[in-house]
Amino acid sequence: MMRRGGGSLAGAVALLALAGCAPVAEVEQAGAAAAMPPTLFVAAKRGNTLSKVDLATGEEVLRLPSCTNPHELATSPDGQHVALACYGGTSVDVFRTDTLERVKSIDLGDNARPHGIVWHDNGNIFVTAEGRQSVFHILGPLTGATVLFEFSTGKQGSHMLAISPDARTAWTTDLGSRTVTRVDLFTRRAPISVTVGEEPEGIALSPDGKTLWVSARGSNQAFALDPLTMEVRKTVATGRFPLRIAVRPQGDVAVTSDLQDGSLSVIDTATAKVIRTIPVSSPAEAQQRFQVTILWSDDGSKVYVAETASDTVAEVDYASGKVLRRLKVGEGGDGMAILP
Questions:
Q1: What is the pTM of this model?
Q2: Sequence-ordered alpha helix ranges (H) in the chain
Q3: What backbone phi and psi angles, to 5 degrees, belong to 301?
Q4: What is the mean pLDDT of the chain?
Q5: Which residues are the signal sequence here (predicted)?
Q6: Domain residue ranges in the chain
Q7: Residue 196's closest CA among 214, 220, 169?
Q8: In the CATH scheme, what is the homologous superfamily, with its name and number, of domain 1-32+48-152?
Q9: DSSP percent split of the chain into helix, strand, coil, nearest 5
């Protein structure tokens, strides 16, 4: 069911209540998911595949076709499924984490080009639709009564996404418009957009929800914003071309993925200053590896760096800054999700 423009979240919740609980088969799969070893999932945008890597051994144990130009990934709260934004198409596709079997394809409509994606703790999926200049709220993605709500950003290139802990607010980075946009998902008030650097792309909300971090790849900067007023509190000079930013689960640092340097800039979130630079590859190697997406391990001890040009993911020890190993994945590995 698709709801655009008007409508209320309360109405959608009522629809889901009528739909009842998840199928018994899904519940019975929980044990298998819980028994899975630490696992990394990687979407390969050139190979159009989805990979599964056993982090205990470092081996890619499964790789299957996915969709055209797949990008960002998100795992379900129970660990049984992973959702994939099909950037070359119009759908969010959902796969089982144990077998990578596709169990659902949720179409978002013409020219959607979904990219940034979050599978919220409440069980719902949020995703940007760059081609439609909007954000979708997908309620009950695995039920028989899936409901879609679309919220306009009105901005070009709404690319990456962050969601508040209470699922009432979304924030997008809008590459083409050079803005960051705050979208009210509950009352449907008009979105608020502010200009932030050049080509803002990376975005992450602090664990306490009090600071919104943004990296602007075109101006080699990171920004700390007030998530409510959208005021820029701090501006930080980073390495060159910071494509992504990710906040450590402990909340003490944020890390940017500096593509042109082949390094990570480590920002102290309390002082908004760069305190370390972690070399993942040399500047000379940077274009041969082309690092993009970054992802923290659940305990904050490691950073995973997708190296799109070399079809690898670098596993970096945060404490020492050493690259522990490079994990082989599909062609153009980019989006990543992890099960601890």
A1: 0.91
A2: 9-19, 24-28, 30-34, 283-289
A3: -90, -20
A4: 91
A5: 1-24
A6: 1-32+48-152, 199-340
A7: 214
A8: YVTN repeat-like/Quinoprotein amine dehydrogenase (2.130.10.10)
A9: 10, 50, 40
Q: Token pair of 273, please?
A: 């200053």
Residues 340, 324: Cα–Cα separation, whole Å: 18
Decide if pLDDT at 6 tops 80.
Answer: no
d(CA 267, CA 265) in angstroms, rounded, equals 6
Task: Tell me the two tokens of residue 309.
Answer: 């040009």
Between CA 4 and CA 19 the distance in angstroms is 20
| Long-range CB pairs of 204-210, under 8 A, 24+ apart, other chains included | 204/162, 204/245, 204/246, 204/247, 204/254, 205/162, 205/163, 205/164, 205/171, 205/247, 206/247, 206/251, 206/269, 207/247, 207/249, 207/250, 207/251, 208/251, 209/164, 209/165
Q: Does domain 199-340 have CATH number 2.130.10.10?
A: yes
Closest CA to 302 of 277, 281, 319, 282: 319
d(CA 71, CA 292): 11
Residue given tokens 């803002």 in the structure block: 200
Candidates 172, 272, 177, 261; CA nearest to 222 is 272
| CA atoms of 1 and 257, how far apart (whole Å) | 38
pLDDT at 180: 98
Residue reference for tokens 């990171």: 222
pLDDT digits (tens, 9 = 90+) for 14-61: 343 334 344 434 444 444 445 678 999 999 999 999 999 999 999 999
CA-CA-CA-CA torsion sign (238, 244, 250, 251): positive
